[in-house]
Amino acid sequence: MKKTDKYILIKFLGTFVLAISLIIVIVIIFDISEKIESFVSKKAPLHAIIFDYYFNFIPYFVNLFSPLFTFIAVIFFTSRMADRSEIVAILSSGISFWRMLYPYMLASLIIALSSLLLNSFIIPHANKKRQAFEDQYVNGKYHHDKWNIHLQSVTEPGTFMYIERYDNDLNFGPKFSMEKIKDNQLFYKLLSDGIKWDSVTGRWQIQNYTIRKISGDKEVLIKGKILDTIIAMKPLDFGRKASSIEVMTSPELNTYINDEKAKGTPNVELFEIEKYKRVAMPFATFILTLIGVSLSSRKVRGGIGMHIGFGLVISFSYILFMQVSATFAANGQLSPIVAVWIPNVLYSFIAYYLLKTAPK
Fold first, then answer.
1. Domain ranges of the chain
2. Which is nearest to 126 in space by CA: 73, 57, 66, 78?
3. For residues 151 and 166, is the Cβ–Cβ distance under 8 A?
4. 30: burial class by Cβ within 10 Å (0-12, 13-18, 19+)?
5. By three-state DSSP, how is residue 261 classified?
6. Are 73 and 19 in contact (CB under 8 A)?
7. Residue 249: which H helix or E strand, with range?
8. What is the pLDDT along the chain (360 residues), one digit of tens a residue?
9. DSSP string computed for 30-92
10. What is the DSSP code string of 302-325?
11. Residue 191 to residues 167, 184, 211, 212, Cα–Cα distance (Å)
12. Burial, 33: exposed, middle or buried (Cβ in 10 Å; 0-12, 13-18, 19+)?
């Protein structure tokens, strides 16, 4: 690396860290002012507030704002370099514009890989502690709100189950039924008034049940009051809160998506969107960096303010486009992978055009 490369690399990463640190401090101050009443009323320990909540709060929001502040950092320090004619001096020294992009891309690679690592493994573990704190001291316990739940067992294909709803306070679900089908023929059917989960034994207690066992022309009918048994499902199979996506590592998320598809669960698109965003957002770091360099490397009469203003318009339009396309995917009107990557593809063309027209 040349001195110029080290200079740009340090400026890039230094400005990024400074900008993201300032916004995190501001976010924490606003968050404290919003939740202080809950902390006090529910007597949250200071140690838990600092280490269980805010210590795990920081990486989540750093990663959330990472693409935006990568772009702002590039715009800010490159505009200052252009305003002080440093860009002109670099290009006049024999370094081409394309070679000058090398430290920018290296810094983007560092940020993108860090974001990918945070997204896939570190933040999910941090979110488990953060959400556990919120459930205890801020939001209260989560309650299942789904009704008339139909699902197929993942470990036992051909086993279909129905439950009217599930109360996770009582660990009880009324009106449970189970059917087993083989070669398109029903050979087992269970109907019951309800089902209760025993978290100690990991078994289900089926109440007031009727079982039909069918074999050819023969049918056996069994009735009873209580049946303790193991069923290929867990309470989490009846539904999770939307934020549970945030506590899954990427391998866990892939497994969960495959299991939910096997069960025939609707609205898996939300989880698929999260899966693809964990890769698409770090990749956007490269695109936004190229756009930022192209816009701010030219010295203009408006100075740094002009560059930052135009840069914010570009960055916020990217975020808005991402949210709109994700909404279409969540409603089933667009493939999740297409919805997540459309903004990157479109802004890649914008980056290419701006690079072609940038002063060299």
1. 3-139+267-357, 147-239
2. 57
3. no
4. exposed
5. helix
6. yes
7. none
8. 789 999 999 999 999 999 999 999 999 999 999 999 999 999 999 999 999 999 999 998 899 889 888 988 998 899 889 888 899 899 988 899 999 999 999 999 999 999 999 999 999 999 989 988 988 888 766 666 778 888 888 778 889 999 998 887 788 999 999 999 988 889 999 999 999 998 888 899 999 999 999 988 889 999 999 999 988 788 877 766 555 788 889 999 999 888 888 777 767 888 899 999 999 999 999 999 999 999 888 876 666 677 677 777 887 888 888 888 888 887 878 899 999 999 999 999 999 998 998 877
9. HHHHHHHHHHHHTT--HHIIIIIIIHHHHHHHHHHHHHHHHHHHHHHHHHHHHHTTHHHHHHH
10. THHHHHHHHHHHHHHHHHHHHHHH
11. 19, 20, 7, 9
12. exposed
Distance in angstroms (rounded) separating the CA atoms of residues 309 and 293: 14
Token match 């598809």: residue? 261
Q: What is d(CA 337, CA 144) in angstroms, rounded to the nearest whole number?
A: 28
Nearest to 143 by CA among 169, 165, 163: 169
Which two three-digit tokens encode residue 156?
């036992």
Say how far apart CA 277 and CA 339 lie, in whole Å: 10
Residues in the chain, overall count: 360
What is the model's pTM?
0.79
b/e per residue 183-222 (b: at least 16 CB within 10 A): eeeebbbbbbebbbbeeeeeebbbbebebeeeeeeeeeee
What six digits make up the tokens of 158?
Answer: 């051909």
Tally of CB atoms within 10 A around 342: 20
CA distance 35 to 346: 39
